[in-house]
Amino acid sequence: xxxxxxxxxxxxxxxxxxxxxxxxxxxxxxxxxxxxxxxxxxxxxxxxxxxxxxxxxxxxxxxxxxxxxxxxxxxxxxxxxxxxxxxxxxxxxxxxxxxxxxxxxxxxxxxxxxxxxxxxxxxxxxxxxxxxxxxxxxxxxxxxxxxxxxxxxxxxxxxxxxxxxxxxxxxxxxxxxxxxxxxxxxxxxxxxxxxxxxxxxxxxxxxxxxxx
Length: 212
Ligand code: HEC
Prior knowledge:
Layout: H1 4-9, H2 12-25, H3 27-33, H4 35-50, H5 55-75, H6 78-90, H7 98-104, E1 114-115, E2 121-123, H8 151-159, H9 165-173, H10 175-183, H11 198-210
Antiparallel strand pairs: 1-2
Helix pairs in contact: 2-3, 2-4, 3-4, 4-5, 5-6, 7-11, 8-10, 9-10, 9-11
């Protein structure tokens, strides 16, 4: 098994493959770390190909995550596994205003809910037209299990598009265009809503990132 530093230098594709292998060989450890964490990690790596402008963030994230991740492998404790996820999320750039984002989120609740793994609703009510937006900051596009995404959003998932502030802001202002550009695929997003103001998009990201 390669050590974490080797892993973090793998290409996104190789890392995804490693994750799949890891899942097959030791499903218990994989489950504890959480498939989302593993997916995030692999995708953060792949991201270098997609968003050159966020390279610095990615590098910092991987460097910060690597020791914690290696430790969690050595110590085999759930808490350290969780700390890994935390570290990666904290490295995201968030510049918006949480309170303004909360107000703006009223526009989203007709289609989206924010509900955590424990099933607690943190924002919205029960809307199911769009996917649950819990943990969207730093998550891979199209990664909510059980949600029936458009082909375009699935292509974004496959391409490893990650919702950094920049990607999120572009997405909510024009879902179809942003995902088509990020993937090189044509197609339409299932999300018909568009946020008009760039600042509002940034504030929405800050609000969603604040919901833990
Ligand atoms: C009319 C319903 C509707 C509204 C209003 C709406 N969305 Fe969506 N949203 C969707 C649907 C449907 C999708 C799935 C897109 C797809 O599969 O192509 C989606 C997807 C998303 C995603 C991608 C999630 C993922 O897992 O890839 C984000 C982020 C998002 N919406 C944010 C927002 C925000 C923020 C607002 C409010 C400003 C909002 N949406 C308003 C319907 C909506």
